[in-house]
Specification:
It is built from 6 helices and 8 strands; from the N terminus they run αββαβαβββββααα. It is α+β, with helices and mostly antiparallel strands. A 4-stranded antiparallel sheet has the order 1-2-8-3, with helices on both faces. The protein has a 4-stranded antiparallel sheet with strand order 5-4-6-7, with helices on one face. It is globular and about 45 Å long. The termini are far apart. Bound molecules: calcium ion.
Length: 203
């Protein structure tokens, strides 16, 4: 019986000492899930969370920044990441609603950038998108038309959203600077927001 007890004890110790669900290296401090918030999904060096309450793009970006000064709407840089974000939405919502990600039309031209400032090196646009219909589609949603596909739409339409927070080691969280603050400045929607429902059918 003694060896059975020892094996059981070893199992308990193994579970207690196993790496956190985040996949952080042993001894490394990281904030995924960040303190006080559970169910954030680690993908690469970032943590992601789905938020089902529909808000406009700028409200969503601002809310992501409330979780961390380095928080933003999700940027996506590979097919793998795109699929992981899609899976996260389904896991939280049991379906795949059209959802904000961090793609923002740059200076009202055809180019896009991510609100986190990272390189625009991947896209998964639905065929024919981005079309900037009526010259008012500056923001990016995922799950348009088909699973995982992207579409540009007016920023003031309400959508659920996916936030990201970078994983960083102890002490680095203090490095948020003025540039970060300016990038996350909330913009006004005003009249466009009121017209949002009318835009819904013509995207
Ligand atoms: Ca569009």
């Amino acid at each position: 019986m003694k060896w059975v007890f020892l094996l059981s004890l070893a199992g308990v110790v193994q579970v207690l000492s196993a790496p956190a669900e985040t996949g952080c290296a042993e001894g490394e401090f990281c904030r995924c899930p960040i303190h006080g918030f559970t169910h954030w999904l680690r993908i690469g060096n970032k943590c992601f969370s789905y938020h089902g309450h529909p808000v406009n793009f700028f409200q969503a970006e601002a809310q992501c920044r409330r979780y961390s000064c380095k928080g933003h709407l999700a940027s996506i840089h590979s097919c793998f990441e795109n699929h992981q974000i899609y899976s996260l939405i389904i896991a939280r919502n049991y379906t795949y609603p059209r959802t904000w990600i961090g793609g923002l039309r740059h200076n009202r031209c055809n180019g896009f950038r991510w609100t986190d400032g990272s390189c625009w090196n991947y896209n998964n646009w639905y065929p024919g998108e981005p079309n900037n219909q009526f010259g008012r589609e500056y923001c990016t949603e995922i799950n348009f038309g088909a699973h995982q596909k992207w579409n540009d739409i007016p920023c003031c339409l309400p959508r659920p959203y996916v936030c990201e927070i970078p994983i960083y080691r102890e002490g680095q969280e203090e490095e948020c600077g003025r540039e970060e603050e300016e990038r996350g400045r909330e913009e006004e929607c005003g009249r466009e927001e009121e017209e949002g429902g009318q835009e819904e059918e013509r995207e």
